[in-house]
Design goal:
The chain is mostly helical. It contains two helices and no strands.
Amino acid sequence: MKTMSVILKILAVLSFIVTALCFLEGELEMFITLLIVSIFMLATGVLFKNLGEAFEDIALIRKRQKQELFSKGILKEE
């Protein structure tokens, strides 16, 4: 997920650059469209980053809970 986040952020930055060029050329419709797409890609990249971190946290919590159950003798070690 984090890799996809980085890819989307790089694409968003490149898209912002193209958006600036469209603004300088005077293409208002293209500028607005690319700006919206750029913001959407950046937001999606941030979402993927946060989801990746959340999944890592969940995996860590489950691992700690499992170790606690082993230490209390509730579960037998495999």
